[in-house]
Amino acid sequence: MIRTLTAMTYEVDDADMAVADILEGLNIESSLLANSVGILTCHMEFIREDVARRVSEALPFDVIGMNTLGTAAGGDYGQVALGVMVLTSGDLIFRTGLSAPLNPENMQAEIRELYRNVSCGERPSLIFALGPMVNDIVGDDYITYMDEASGGVMMFGSMAMDFGEWIRSPLTIYGGQAYSDRLCVLFIYGQVDPEFLVMSIPDDKILRQDAVITEASGNLLKKVNGLPAADYMMSIGLVSEEGVEAGQVMGVGTVPFAMYLEKDAPPVVRNVFGLTEDKDIICGGSMIEGAILGVGSVEYGDVIKTARQAAGEMLETGKKDGMIIFSCAGRNVALDLNVDDEANAVSGVIGKEAPFLFAYSGGEICPLPDENGRLKNRYHNNSIVLLAF
């Protein structure tokens, strides 16, 4: 059995009032079971003003978290806000951990060490992870190396997100301290039966191309059908000759790729950000050689429709003890930065039927069925992902 509690505060200038808001909203004195853990999402100002640390330290259990563009919890929503979800149970066990500073050279070894230290030799039932966006590290790498260490334990989570003229300071939070280069994790042990859901581009908004990725390196798309990636993009009208010279593509955040890794499996979505000096396409996650490439289109109505549909489908599963929801900040571009609208759409569907924590994401981690229906951990862009208990 698992119970979830949620609370929000907007008190970025007064840590004492913020702590009081969270403690009152959670009502932990009468609500906690034997084992508990907290998940915190907040605007960057709550870290700068030391409020995130004060709230974390006021709670009598481990807290992991990240900064984000917007948060909804306890029926409230705000951009400059801090939300907390508490998982509490009489039979499940929660263990948390923090990696060493990560870089491309040490990442595999450090994630293996993190898994070893947190698991203590026992395989968890579920891994919840919050990661930083580190230069030269692709979000898929967190999944690849954790899969290697855990043997493929189901994994759900998000990359931290701080949004401005460019991504400024995405930070993870552990023990009240903020980190720019460390992965924090929650391992759950016991009989937990989570439900996962991924929703991104509506099927009728994906134009499936007769296109195969013939060369890629990490998040760089180099060749499609043997053509240089920039030439391919020009052939389908997503970049002009002037854009190639300037390193710019059209529709950043609203014209993503849909990458089909298997013939009969749902696609994995990748945002397209620009071109390198070598005219490779910069994408928001790993591009896989041999995958079929489609081109999507995302508009305001698509974001609202998929948010409502995802929340409704999750409620239909009957899992209403608690939901954690991450939505890609790229979807926010289609909303013209009206971040309230998607959160309000989700809240309008879920209402009081289930406690939930909603936050914007720099990259989403959620299992997706393969062509045989078996779940595999995947890294997503431009998607809304849900975990329900």
This entry's quaternary arrangement is single chain
| Rg | 20 Å
- H/I helix tally: 11
* Residues in helix, %: 25-40%
Query: Shape from CA axes?
Result: globular
> Roughly what fraction of the amino acids lie in strands?
25-35%
Structural class: alpha+beta
Poorly predicted runs are none
**Kindly, what is the distance between the CA atoms of the first and last residues, rounded to a whole number of angstroms?**
9 Å
* Biggest sheet descriptor: 8 strands, antiparallel
| Average pLDDT reading | 92
Strand tally, please?
Answer: 26
Structural overview:
The protein is an alpha+beta fold and 389 residues long. It contains 11 helices and 26 strands. Helix 1 (15-26) runs parallel beside helix 4 (51-58), helix 5 (107-119) crosses helix 6 and helix 9 packs parallel to helix 11. The radius of gyration is 20 Å and the shape is globular.
Features:
389 residues, alpha+beta, eight-stranded antiparallel β-sheet, six-stranded mixed β-sheet, 11 helices, 26% helix
Summarize this entry quickly.
The chain is α+β, with helices and mostly antiparallel strands and about 400 residues long. The chain has helices at about 15-25, 30, 45-50, 50-60, 105-120, 140-150, 230-235, 240-245, 300-315, 330-335, 340-350, and strands at about 5-10, 35-40, 65, 70-75, 75-80, 80-90, 95-100, 125-130, 155-160, 170-175, 175-180, 185-190, 195-200, 205-215, 220-225, 225-230, 255-260, 270, 270-275, 280-285, 290-295, 325-330, 355-360, 365-370, 375-380, 385-389.
